[in-house]
Amino acid sequence: MQNGAFDPIELPAVVWEQEQTRRILRERDIAGLFGLAVKYGASQVRIGTATGLGQPRVNAILRGNGTIKELAVIERIAAGLRLPDHARMILGLAPLDIASPTGDHDDEHEEQTTELINRLDAAAVVDATTVMILRTDTNNLRLLDRRLGGPAIADKMHAQMAQIERAHRHAIRPGLRAQLAHLLAETASLAGWQAINTLALNDAWTHYERAKAAALEADDPALLAYVSGEQAYVLMEVGRPAEATELLQHIHNQHRAKAPARLRTWLSAAEAEAAAVLGDQITCRAALDQATALLPEGDADPDMPYLSINAHHMARWRGNCLVRFGDPDTAEDLRSALAGMDGTYNRAESGVRCDLAHALLAAGDPEAAQPHIQRAQQLAIMTGSRRQRRRIDDLSKAVNHALGR
Fold it and tell me: Which residue, 246, 318, 313, is CA-closest to 281?
């Protein structure tokens, strides 16, 4: 067996016929799968390369310090370990050979039929009250995310996503399935935003693709516009602000006639941010002015719990955008945003203080910037936001340089 980091991993065919392997597959025991690969000569580096996880994460999983529950990641693992179709099906994945997906594995087929019946029976007990409870759980996770950040609630998020996906995948009644699709889109979008903040950008993209598909099934144009717009932030983070701006403009034009005012406000503000990253001050200011003009009264709409934006949020957005162009009013906008925060948006507060420090530094007052940098760093560490910490590290160096340190 070859041992290069990029060589394909090939386990003996007999391995997939063993009862122990079938148990590992049925239980989606990823550590067990990796253990089999190691047993037959694959190094951790080789597994990490083949599955796209990287050696450190493979090592953590093998030591029992990591779990994999995202379907897209499990699919990558199955492809990287080159599972045959009957093994993929026990794992719960579709076969690759669509022309002949089943083969002659009668035992596996019987197990799959039993498992499908059990899942259909489990989904059948999900009713409107169950969906309401699941929706409450997602809303609570959204609040916890604002306060604590994604890493602190990662296990809860994984469990919530898995529960909603299981119920949705095997729901039969159309009305109930549509409700579950709507909830899946909201929850996947939240997971996508958490992934952006930890800079797990490939995972974020996958979450948004799942969210868009669910929003389409739910037949909710506003939700589809929102999750599509959030996906533009992935493009910004990977250095494609022009494409992010183009995407947001397309979404806004496509949904302009039916989108609620608060959603249009958010889309315009997001477009302004993408234009600011791009360095397009004219488009940025026009989008900010449009967002301000569209902003309705109140903080949120009951039918869009995933979207919260008010005058203070707009001040934060304006400051975040215009600080890039050295606007003299930026610091005042950011102070206004900071004063209006209610103490529950800890990750957002980190961003505001980072922007305010940037503005103060640009105005020639690094001493005034320093305490905001320090508080921003505390909040970014508390919420696990690698995205904010990256910005804070750069600003800290600039402030220290300005202070002669």
Answer: 318
